[in-house]
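Bench notes, afternoon.
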Amino acid sequence: TTDVLFLLADDALTTLFGRPRPTGREDPSATVDEGQLSSFEKAESARLMRVNHAGEVCAQALYRSQALTARSTTLKKRMIQAAREENDHLLWCENRIKELGAKKSLLNPLWYGGSFAIGAVAGLIGDRWNLGFLVETERQVERHLEGHLDLLPAQDSRSRAIVKQMKEDEGNHATSALQAGAAPLPQPIKELMRMASRIMTKSS
């Protein structure tokens, strides 16, 4: 148990203050030319990518705590693999924020702690509900990213390439969880999740 705690602490510190550990996938913006952005457009893109980065910080905490509390070994592995793939998103967003001359949200430690607690509760309730929580989280993130594609400056091709790939990955995670036997969440829980997401988005 001590080893597990050390690993969890290492994951948290790396997510919040270190460099994310990517899977090796190429950054989708790597081969995309930088568009001509005004100062206002850069600031708008940075604001949106900072929100996306904060969301990926939450995803790391959720998946790690859901893996910790999952009962099935298969589900634990599924959650850990999803966290690794989300680490790519974390790194891509962080790099893009730096390119735009901006900084990450100062509230990321708060988002991490809160998300870890929520994920742990979902895992303790049972594996089917754990998967159901994953599905709803990914569906909401998918819709959120779709909205960002509408809001990002049209000429910011690099940010748009990142968000498009993230959206595709989130959809795949949700589909995979459904196929694994996820239980549908009650509507009030879904609404609470949307409310929490709106608070995080505005604060970030």
